[in-house]
From TrEMBL:
<dbReference type="InterPro" id="IPR050662">
    <property type="entry name" value="Sec-metab_biosynth-thioest"/>
</dbReference>
<protein>
    <submittedName>
        <fullName>MBL fold metallo-hydrolase</fullName>
    </submittedName>
</protein>
<keyword id="KW-0378">Hydrolase</keyword>
<dbReference type="InterPro" id="IPR036866">
    <property type="entry name" value="RibonucZ/Hydroxyglut_hydro"/>
</dbReference>
<dbReference type="Pfam" id="PF00753">
    <property type="entry name" value="Lactamase_B"/>
</dbReference>
<dbReference type="InterPro" id="IPR036388">
    <property type="entry name" value="WH-like_DNA-bd_sf"/>
</dbReference>
<dbReference type="InterPro" id="IPR048933">
    <property type="entry name" value="B_lactamase-like_C"/>
</dbReference>
<dbReference type="GO" id="GO:0016787">
    <property type="term" value="F:hydrolase activity"/>
</dbReference>
<dbReference type="Pfam" id="PF21221">
    <property type="entry name" value="B_lactamase-like_C"/>
</dbReference>
<feature type="domain" description="Metallo-beta-lactamase">
    <location>
        <begin position="48"/>
        <end position="262"/>
    </location>
</feature>
<dbReference type="InterPro" id="IPR001279">
    <property type="entry name" value="Metallo-B-lactamas"/>
</dbReference>
Amino acid sequence: MADLDHNGHELRAGLRYPWVQAPESGQVREVAPGVWWLRMPLPFRLDHINLYLLRDTHGWVVVDTGMNTEQTREVWGRVLDEVCAGLPVLAVVCTHFHSDHAGVGAWLSERFQCPVYMTASEFQALHVRFPADQPPGWDFLDFYRKAGVSDEHSAELFTVMSNAHFLPVPLNHFRRLREGSCLEIGGRTWQVVTGKGHSPEHACLYAAEDGLLISGDQVLPRITSTVGVHATEPLANPLLDWLDSITHLRSLPDTVLVLPAHERPFFNLHHRLDQLDAHHQGQLVLMLANCDEPRTALELMSVLFPRLSGRFDELMALGETLAHANYLVANGSLERDVDRGRYRYRCAVKGACPATSLKVF
């Protein structure tokens, strides 16, 4: 039996959930006047994404789209008939470029001849992909070799990344969102609040007067968003961006109803931000505690993520491990050396300077 407050809201891990149960897969629920929560199925262990339909005077604005699958299109077909009642989609907003958020943005745009809104960095990232019909290139293999991964193992990771599920319908146009941009939808003003780390320029939508925050993947309850380093930018420091974004989001009121992309809507934003910060600080401490002797990223992955299931989990976990390692190298806590073609990480000599310069090879 769940603990409930005086409003009947479920209390769990310091967060307050207005709805004890989510809608069934493919179903909707109105969470505020003119704001509908659509539970779109996904073909993974994380079996859903939350999309949001915003009612406007003459139609609907869709926030995020689901993956590029036939199942997604089938659900949309029914929702457009039964929920949207024949009224058109006037615009699509993609919080970020990931395939479960932007997968059929171009398909909806073509069907309704409507614009797609997203930030410039997310639009650019949408078009950076490894060609699925070619073997992995030297840069991909080199990235994983340096992490301690064999070429055979890397090829299996490449196969996961090349799955058609992860390839959104090509999008050839967008309207740019920026920090502070405002969208007027159905008499409600939604202000763009950007975050970084999980993706380059993630757009959250904040309706101040109604206390609503569509947070996408930038703030999730219970689970943590992936903050990873991948072959496209091997020395990136996304964890620094992520932690800075936590500070940025604290400027929003703690009282907002957070409408996330996964799990259930919740209250107590600031408490969740504290939890996310504590999670990553704990991972950093754990990594440092295991770097008295030089370790590869693959070895450190087994420390930070001791229980993994399959190559997809490994892909995400290794990216996160490298994000924490790159953060500690950048602030001078770890040293990164090359040993027989692999990066090895060890605690820095006391008083060493942070790695603020880049080698050209």
